[in-house]
Amino acid sequence: MASTASSTLSLSSSSTIIDGKPPRHPATAASPQCVSLPTLPPPPVPSQNRSQNSWKTTTYCRKLARNVVAMATGDAPAEVAVTEMPEIVKTIQAAWDNVEDKYAVTTLAVAGVVALWGSTGLISAIDRLPLVPGVLEIVGIGYSGWFAYKNLIFEPDREALFKKIKETYKDVIGKS
């Protein structure tokens, strides 16, 4: 690698100035809350050797700039691997290309997001009411128990439920 030149910044500090303000009286300057920073070394003196390092740095930077321009124009290095898009992205792109009224679909999607956002606000408002969350939780547990008793415990009821789910799936998807 080529050596790089760096410039140093010299700051001086004083125990009489804290936070950019001078102390109000001499006792403040000697208090244990005051902090003084050591001074930094002075900047290096320019020499003939420094100009040679500067020239090397400039050449190295120009070489890097050439590589960046080459990559921007499309001359990709050999180690860059091209990755394929996942299949789900391809499926979504194909479905979007088949949509005739993109404006209506986009409007429905935005309306769905707004409705979802509004419903979360409504649910959080209901959740803050006293007793209502507890009552709704008991109703949910009761309905889940009733559904399990009615549809899942006995085999004929279970088969009827699975048949109804498969029919609904076929109606929604349109395939067998």
TrEMBL record:
Ranges for domain Cyanobacterial aminoacyl-tRNA synthetase CAAD: 90-174
Q: How does it sit in the membrane?
A: Multi-pass membrane protein
- A single Gene Ontology molecular function, please? aminoacyl-tRNA ligase activity
Entry-linked PANTHER family? PROTEIN CURVATURE THYLAKOID 1B, CHLOROPLASTIC, PTHR33222
Q: Where is region (Disordered) located?
A: 1-54
User: Per its record, how is this protein called by name?
Assistant: Cyanobacterial aminoacyl-tRNA synthetase
Q: Where is the composition biased (Low complexity)?
A: 1-16
Q: Where does the sequence pass through the membrane?
A: none
Q: Which UniProt keywords apply?
A: Aminoacyl-tRNA synthetase, Ligase
Tell where it localizes. Answer: Membrane
Organism annotation:
Macleaya cordata (Five-seeded plume-poppy)
Q: Name one GO cellular component term.
A: chloroplast thylakoid membrane
